Amino acid sequence: MVFSDRSRGASPLRPGFNSVTSYKPEGLSVADHLHPVINAGRVAVITGAASGIGKAAALEFAKIGMKVAIADVNHERLNELAAELIQTLGETNVIAQPTDVSKLDEVVRLRDRVYEAWGEVAVLMNNAGVGDRGTSWAGIDKWKKVFDVNLFGIVNVQQTFVPSMLHQENQALIVNTGSKQGITNPPGNAAYNASKAAVKSLTEGLAYELRETPNSNVTAHLFVPGWTHTGMTSSGSSEKPPGAWSAQETVLYMLEHVRKGDFYIICPDNETRNEIDQLRIMWAASDVAEGRPALSRWHRDYKALFSEYMREGLESLER
Ligand SMILES: NC(=O)c1ccc[n+]([C@@H]2O[C@H](COP(=O)([O-])OP(=O)(O)OC[C@H]3O[C@@H](n4cnc5c(N)ncnc54)[C@H](O)[C@@H]3O)[C@@H](O)[C@H]2O)c1
């Protein structure tokens, strides 16, 4: 791959290529049905399950025949989804537990209810999240809220569930939801980006700790959705923009890669394919390694260089 930063020349920031128009998994194989964790009869717990990606995940786990525990602060939507899940799974295989993940006692209640009912957790999906635009020096309450939910929500769930999951004999996995904004840090959402960077960091640490724990049967995965049409991104519009993926597409991609055992699950969308993400991530890392200005991708002196880098990088990846 050529990562020349010497040559210059006009190049579009988004080079033309055949974008991904929709995501369809290659098809369930026999191996998928035999997956030890994502399998009928086992238990999935999803936070932030009442909308968007969490809801799509609950519906996919129900299709597989897993028992599903859904948790959310939005009680009305939670109950609506529970009614839908019960139609597929029956009442004894669905738990709807109103839970604010930023409150430890509520997370403890969720765990107790799940273990009392089913005695295990196979898939723990830390999905609850909130986003807000803002700068680094304004909106202290917003900063606290974003960190309480996006970071401490996951910390609370990990502290509460992981010790119990480690005691189980059966294999289990934890999926923490990060964001590309926590990796490449685009300007405009300072608190959200910082919280998602922390989620990446804590999930990498968790994966290492689980790997090094004797007899641990639990793995961790960092799930990074692409642009997905959900409550968070839709601004109230029900129509999915062409560039975004549906929540179901994003969840199917995540499941396929969790089944493969991938740790980093960086989802594309209809605007941004994997190669573009790879190049952007490497550029961001090179800011640090090469001592460039912070966020040089958006620095007026580096824009042309970044465009050139993307053009050459994509050409070499496509060769
Ligand atoms: N949609 C995207 O393009 C996108 C991209 C990258 C990452 N993400 C991440 O995906 C996750 C799911 O987001 P989404 O896009 O489906 O948004 P969404 O708003 O549709 O769903 C988020 C859910 O989390 C719930 N929630 C909020 N605060 C909570 C709390 N304190 N406790 C429990 N539940 C709470 C909300 O009620 C909502 O049901 C989030 O972590 C988000 O940051 C989304």
UniProtKB/TrEMBL annotation:
Pfam family, one: adh_short
Key words of the record: NADP, Oxidoreductase
MF (Gene Ontology): oxidoreductase activity, acting on NAD(P)H, oxygen as acceptor; oxidoreductase activity, acting on the CH-OH group of donors, NAD or NADP as acceptor
Domain of life per record: Eukaryota
Oxidoreductase in keyword set: yes
UniProt entry tagged with the keyword NADP: yes
Signal peptide: none
Family listed: Belongs to the short-chain dehydrogenases/reductases (SDR) family.
PANTHER family: BENZIL REDUCTASE, SHORT CHAIN DEHYDROGENASE_REDUCTASE (AFU_ORTHOLOGUE AFUA_2G00830)
Protein name according to UniProt: NAD(P)-binding protein
